[in-house]
Amino acid sequence: MGIFQGFMVLNDLAENVKADARYAGADNFTGQVVDGYRAPKVVGTEELGAALKEVAFEAGEKGLGLLLFDGYRPERAVRHFMRWAEQEEDFRTKAAHYPNIDKDQIIPLGYVARRSGHSRGSTIDLTLFYLSDGRALDMGGAFDLMDERSHHGAQGITREQAANRAFLRDLMLRHGFVDYENEWWHYRLKDEPYPDRYFDFVIE
């Protein structure tokens, strides 16, 4: 099955865009491939792609590229997250992803939602990298770190890390995105084309 009508693969959106589809592999907070991700692709609506292309162009002028972690998220993946959150703690991913909270706090604290805006197709998780050597900018915390350190305005990060986050935020907001206060990497297209529709097609 191909990509759903109105959606597109974002991996090769521009020369300075690359993807690291975390939920298509085991390098994520569940420690396993997530339901609905059968290929290492980051997918989104065509409107999301158009806005990200503008972001990538401006980033490229600064010698930077976009590294995409996740876009459209099938509803079955969200259900997978819920099942994982209800399972007994095995500590396999705790140190990397939620070192300072208990597993049963992840949903109440808003780090994982029972219904995700990602499933509407116009939300993106991303960071920036240097085109010169491929290094990701230091944001003071990794993608999917469920911790106050990931919040906008977090205490305990360096001036450089805060500046990098602010640069990404300003860049995204200039091109029609809104941020999420608990996750420096998470942005939603303000004028999303499917504000009330949640999708569940498989990424393959």
The largest β sheet comes out as: 5 strands, mixed
Low-confidence runs = none
Q: Write down how many β-strands occur, each being a DSSP E stretch of 2 or more residues.
A: 7
From the alpha carbons, calculate the radius of gyration and give it in angstroms: 16 Å
How far from one another are the termini?
7 Å
Number of helices: 4
Q: What structural class do helix, strand and pairing data support?
A: alpha+beta
SSE string, helix = H, strand = E? Answer: EEEHEHHEHEE
Determine the fraction of residues in helical runs and give it as a percent range. 10-25%
State the shape.
globular
Strand content: 15-25%
**Strands across the major sheet, in which order?**
2-4-5-7-6
- The averaged pLDDT comes out at 96
Can you give a write-up of this model?
The structure is a single chain. With 204 residues, the protein is an alpha+beta fold. The protein is 24% helix and 17% strand. The chain is built from 4 helices and 7 strands. The strands form 2 sheets. A 5-stranded mixed β-sheet has the order 2-4-5-7-6, covered by helices on one side. Strands 1-3 form a two-stranded antiparallel ribbon. The longest helix has 16 residues, at 46-61. The chain is globular, with a radius of gyration of 16 Å. The mean pLDDT is 96.
